[in-house]
Amino acid sequence: MHRSDVLIIGAGPTGLVLALWLSRLGIHARIIDKTSTSGTTSRALAVQARTLELYRQLDLSDSVVQQGHCVEAANFWVKGEPVARLPLSRIGEGLTPYAFLEIFPQDEHERLLIKRLEAFGVSVERDTELEAFEETGDGISATLRLPDGQRETCQACYLAGCDGARSVVRKALDTGFPGGTYQQIFYVADVQASGPTFNGELHVDLDEADFLAVFPLAGSGRARLIGTVRDERAEHAETLRFEDVSSRAIEHLKVQIEQVNWFSTYRVHHRVADHFRTGRAFLLGDAAHVHSPAGGQGMNTGIGDAINLAWKLAAVLSGGAEARLLDTYETERIAFARKLVATTDRVFTFVTAEGRMADLLRTRLAPFLIPKMASFERSREFLFRTVSQITLNYRRMPLSMGVAGHVHGGDRLPWAHDGEGDNFEPLKSPNWQVHVYGDTSDEMIAWCIEHHLPLHVFDWRPAFETAGLGRNGFYLLRPDTYVAIAETCSDPKVIERYFKHHGIRSFFG
């Protein structure tokens, strides 16, 4: 009988990243998908800075940046003319190694992930569906329908539902999925075109016409159009063709279509599952939460789910932690999902609202405010911090404790970089580790050596103070590079008590 440590249902970015991280940590993952091939079309485009930081652990970041497209600026148009420009190429400078907006379409992204996964000897099993599963005493028993129509019963220690908004896993668990559906119909089209908006930058029409955004892709004259479909056309969304969508917004942005490579329509939902875990089954990505495309958060949030769960599953399956560590997955990720849905809902409502007042806000107020905001460094920094997900944190949650400098337990470790080095370099290794900025005690050094816990001591430099790091204390970092303990002393017993309290026995995945 086929047995795996983790059975992953769904081979989109969330499922692929989960399989990759588990494989990197020595865990046997099996991944299935009901489709015949990986996606050839997709809506997700942006790979946020936080995702790129975490991708360093699998040596993926450079490939994404090289194959994708760095967006230099966002331009806003009203009545057929550009009225505001927001520079983006260095918008997060000093905050992260990836201080820009990176566009890398989901279909290309998936192909890269699949190739890397195959290097670990794991292939996606296509045309394979989950029909049913049940929890047994020590694992999961699942029934799969194979490509030839035969059924297979397989065993796994845990099951991960990464199977999208219509998740079979979520329905089988009878988990509620409260929320709603926006009335607007969206279309997405991959086109070859020309015009002033095909200059490698992002362009958004703020006019009374249908909403339209032009996202640049790598290569000359390639772009992704995302727009709304209003009025009576929305009633026939399933049969719409590109020729049927309004040309007003396209004309406003002076887009000259040469070829439409693919086109589809979709509705936008905003929902968060009642639970992300039931026993040995977990929900991740769109199976757990769906929200508007505002800010390019969806795919990145699913990837964050996968990395959060991967190191915890690896710790438990390898005997390095007690099973109760897995309880923290839902606690940490559901809080962020709920906040994200509320935030993107507000932005989405503003951008797509109809009526005279909404039009006035977009065409008169927004063009005035955007340049003003762009002129202030703090405004640009706030925008980047929010969208890039580098402010995502797990403060006041079970695995987080303490404060040192401006850094709290649960925060992403701040990036500090100068001519003498980069404090993120040790984070490429996905294991528990201790960082000290300044001096530490002999006891801390001896304890870390004795317990094989990596200790990185950085000579104090002004860059660390600028980043908000505390001097001479320590930061215990989780395998996903979030701060577990922020402490002003250098007493290793604080770490010892922490691990004992949380049932963690081994420091490597």
TrEMBL record:
Keywords: FAD, Flavoprotein. InterPro entries: FAD-bd (IPR002938), FAD/NAD-bd_sf (IPR036188), RIFMO-like (IPR050641). One of its GO terms (molecular function) is oxidoreductase activity, acting on paired donors, with incorporation or reduction of molecular oxygen, NAD(P)H as one donor, and incorporation of one atom of oxygen. Transmembrane segments: none annotated. The keyword Flavoprotein applies. Its cofactor is FAD. Residues 4-343 form the FAD-binding domain. PANTHER family: BINDING MONOOXYGENASE, PUTATIVE (JCVI)-RELATED (PTHR43004:SF19), TRK SYSTEM POTASSIUM UPTAKE PROTEIN (PTHR43004). This is 2-polyprenyl-6-methoxyphenol hydroxylase.
